[in-house]
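Item description
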Amino acid sequence: MKSLMDFGYLRLFKPLLFAIDTERAHRLMLAVLSVTPAFSPVDDPPQLRSEVFGLSFSNPVGLAAGMDKDASAILAWNLLGFGFCEVGTITPRPQTGNPRPRIWRLPEHHALINRLGFPSDGQEMVATRLERARHRSFRIRLGLNLGPNSDTPGERIADDFLTLIRRLEGLADFIVFNLSSPNTPGLRELQAPERIRTIINTVRTGTSSAGRPPRILLKLAPDLAAGQLRAICDAALELGLDGIVATNTTLARETVGVSARYEGGLSGEPLKLRARATIAQIYRSTHGRIPIIGVGGVSTAEDAYAHIRAGASLIELYTGLVYQGPAIVHHICDGLVRLLADDGFGSINQAIGVAVER
């Protein structure tokens, strides 16, 4: 099955998709995946199962936000073997995002640059799709990546997150607040600890009578200075957040060895070491008390395992899927089992953070 998927994508579909505009190729792929039947994948090896922020995951490999912004293909991600997927970024009201073109491939770097700016069908349309999907059979865990509308005044951004939570949190397993996209002006300023506290307290106050509070994670940029990141980690511990997603795309291209004329955030292979260093710093700063979803440059089992050894409980990929194709999840899961055995571990949990001195 894996070899058939590899052949079909790498020999047939990838040349077709790479011959057309990047965003058009993305939309074409999603259109195909959106009609995937509701089949369940084979069971994952028990070594890959884990419990993170009170949820069980059949394997640690997830789909990063940005690939399926509007919940178009959840059943496909389930069929491809992902342990979880992160849908979004979702905004309260529909918005078109930045003008096109706004996604570019850098094949020589196995990378992408995007300046999408949160194009979204809006929370109502996404909620309708999620409600429809709940009536189908799938094992995949579901996260929702949320962000404010681009025209929301700074003093009302916390209200946007509250609006989104009230409408969507009952339809997902966990929620990610996107405070780190480089393509929405002023958004990264929300990573300041005082702004984080305002957003979290507004959301918690506004949902305090709704039963179990939602599991909330923050998605952070890879471009934070060490002192900034430590301050955010302190705030995350103080607020009792459920997790951190590290990292978003980077603007520091020269630092990771890429020179390109396009505007926007860089993802893929060049981001790998920078993302891993950020994961390790978060793990060290929080003493391993906050689960981390590691994102950035994952395209092999070795990449995923190194992120896990740096402190990630789960990992996500996006650009790797574009370049490697749908068999990537199976290849990573198979490789993780082998790497765990090589290190004498019987469970993925035993490998988390072993490369970090605390």
